[in-house]
């Protein structure tokens, strides 16, 4: 049985998300907090380990990413998913960079919310699908992400083999190594080897960064050109 905590200062939202979780994940035990201090107190005094904390970015005592930063400092081993009305790509990426294991917009439909929670509880990182599909909007003041080529540079996908492109496409879809191994009819250890090579060739440090570094349209086009494998 999983224990989840919802930290949000709006009782109606806590009630709504609690109802969704109880209906879709009936074996979960749910705790609530209306502020960051209340959440930290609950974590410290709770006898049973908390498996996941759902954090709003608009808490009265920790606006923006300050609450996430305090949680990571106080409870570095506690998985935290940000649940927010904000959908700005930069904020989502910063949340992941600060250690969140997922970002769920408050506008997410119930079924997608439950899918996201199952994915995170299963040890994967969750990002909103529309964020995963589209490239970041251009910002002249931003330095490029590691592994993302400028328009004049060669594509980072050039360095990947056909099999690595297939593995990357499934990473983008959010598939776990075991699922990728079954789909491609290869050993799970081989998948791990491919993932390590993908991270190295794209010059990134994690699966999430690899997903973000991959141009989705270009990746789909390259996969369409691949010859069928025997």
What do these coordinates show?
- The protein has 230 residues and is an alpha/beta fold.
- The protein has two domains: 131 residues, Rossmann fold, CATH 3.40.50; 70 residues, Orthogonal Bundle (Arc Repressor Mutant, subunit A), CATH 1.10.10.
- Helix content is 48%, strand content 12%.
- It contains eleven helices and seven strands.
- α1 crosses α5, α7 crosses α9 and α8 crosses α9.
- The longest helix is centred in the last third of the chain and has 15 residues.
- The protein is elongated.
- About 8% of the residues have low confidence.
Give the helix/strand layout.
Blueprint lengths: L2 E5 L3 H14 L4 E5 L2 H10 L6 E4 L2 E2 L2 E2 L2 H9 L5 E5 L4 H9 L4 E4 L4 H12 L7 H5 L28 H11 L4 H8 L3 H15 L4 H7 L2 H10 L5
Parallel strand pairs: 1-2, 1-3, 3-6, 6-7
Antiparallel strand pairs: 4-5
Helix pairs in contact: 1-5, 7-9, 7-11, 8-9, 9-10
Based on the model shown, name its key terms.
two-stranded antiparallel sheet; alpha/beta; Rossmann fold; 11 helices; 2 domains; Arc Repressor Mutant, subunit A; 230 residues
The N- to C-terminal Cα distance equals 43 Å
What is the alpha-carbon Rg in Å? 19 Å
Whole-number tally of structural domains: 2
CATH architecture assignment name of the largest domain = 3-Layer(aba) Sandwich
Structural class: alpha/beta
Instruction: Give the percentage of residues in beta strands.
Output: 5-15%
Gross morphology is elongated
Give unreliable regions as ranges: 135-153
Tell me, rounded to a whole number, the average pLDDT: 83
Helical amount: 40-55%
Strand numbers in spatial order across the main sheet: 2-1-3-6-7
CATH topology of the largest domain: Rossmann fold
Task: Specify the CATH homologous superfamily of the largest domain.
Answer: Response regulator
- Sheet with most strands: 5 strands, parallel
